Amino acid sequence: MEFLDVVRRRKTTNGPFRPDPVSREHQRLLMEVAGRAPSQLNSQPWRFVIVENRDTIERIARISGESMTEAMSNGSFFERYKPYFRFSAAEMQEKRSGMLFDKLPAALRPFTGQVFTKRGQKLMNAFRVPQTLGEENRRLVAGSPLLLGVMLDRSEYRPGELSSFYSVFSMGAAMENVWLTTAELGMGIQFVSFPMEVPGKWALIEELLRVPAELELMAVYRLGYLPAEAQRPAIDWSSHERKLPSQYVFRDSCDTPELGWDADENPPRPGV
């Protein structure tokens, strides 16, 4: 696969992985590309913990599922992220960003527009939507052959100092390398984020992974090989749209949007 194809095909995997273990060769390759990311003064502030132990994965999955149920039940998740949710193809086409709820059980579809209201929250709780989502999340994480904990060396992270920005930027570059490489290897990847949404849950994962005091657990991802046919959960969303260049690119100064590229469906390749 050519590099630009990899970039364009990169995405988050919402569905299950194949049960096959991730080969040691591919594990090593993913860590190699992470280690080749740029960092200030070659500080290389990243650390990783590869998790294949089934008991540890099951326990993290349980924490993740419980966290999702709690965040969805009390409304904190929808309240925090409501600017990013879309409920129609037309809205998604207009905004060209965020997540489109395009797969819901039939009983819930008439109420999608009310999801951010008190009545909508009561309806979702009555239909046990948080429990359904939490259990599906638990199964997805538990069915992952590999989890990846991403940690930052605290000595390179001093809040309020410019070096902290550089370190966090470097962590993002390292994970982008990993993410792109999964596309090349026929793998998928997804951020296990819900334990961050509920107070106290992230600390449980840090304890499970025995993260030392000199490191900070920044993220956990689930990884695995993709099945031949993608399977979507009963309640799911998609994020295929991308902003037009004129919405995020300016020419010479921020007063002038770049208008000339919006119509390019097939951007030119290098050397063409």
Short description:
This protein has nine helices and seven strands, in the order H-H-E-H-H-E-H-E-H-H-E-H-E-H-E-E. With 272 residues, the chain is of the alpha+beta class. Helix 5 links the parallel strand 2 and strand 3.
Counting DSSP H or I runs of 4 or more residues, the number of helices is: 9
Number of domains: 2
* Cα distance spanning the termini: 18 Å
Spatially, the strands of the biggest sheet line up as 1-4-6-5
Reconstruct the topology from this structure.
Elements lengths: L2 H7 L14 H12 L10 E6 L2 H20 L2 H6 L3 E2 L2 H7 L3 E5 L14 H9 L2 H14 L3 E8 L8 H23 L2 E5 L9 H9 L5 E11 L10 E3 L34
Parallel strand pairs: 2-3
Antiparallel strand pairs: 1-4, 3-7, 4-6, 5-6
Helix pairs in contact: 2-8, 3-7, 3-9
Keywords:
four-stranded antiparallel β-sheet, 2 domains, 7 strands, single chain, disordered C terminus, 272 residues, NADH Oxidase, globular, alpha+beta, three-stranded mixed β-sheet
